[in-house]
Amino acid sequence: YRAINQANRLLEAGALIELEDSDDEDTYNDIIAQARMIRAFSHFQLLNYFSTDLTDDSALGVILLDFVPGQDAQLLRSTNGEVFDLIESDIDYARANLQTDRSTTFISQDMVDALEARISAYRGDYSRALTLAEDLLDKYPLATRDEYFDIFSDDSDAEIIWKLERTFNG
Fold this sequence. Notes:
Blueprint: H1 2-14, H2 25-50, H3 80-97, H4 109-122, H5 126-139, H6 145-151
Helix pairs in contact: 1-2, 2-3, 4-5
């Protein structure tokens, strides 16, 4: 919820920005798309932990946050369908506005595909999940035995589509 709240704060503040130069519009939309993908990813992570049945749209999901709540807010859980509708709208916005195709540490079109593949698999849409996964496997083949161990020490980006960038003492 902290990541969702921070993304929503950025989105709320971003709505107040008036662009003076139309050349900045693509960069602005890219930043908004990245924030929306962080929100979509975080909602999906929460659903994985707390939903009673991801394949049932009417099942109890998590608190849907597409705004910055007040400190005294006591919100109810939404249904899976309501949360997945928000996730899908965030994914659609990101698909249309992200400027990065491939990057392991920034939200990219490939990360959007990976998240959508995972959502599709968890929701039982295996044909969509397979199509997206096969496309990604063509771009990010599985690591070799030697590369696999290097992934965990950040010495290799083999098969990595997206990861959190961490810095020592950061």
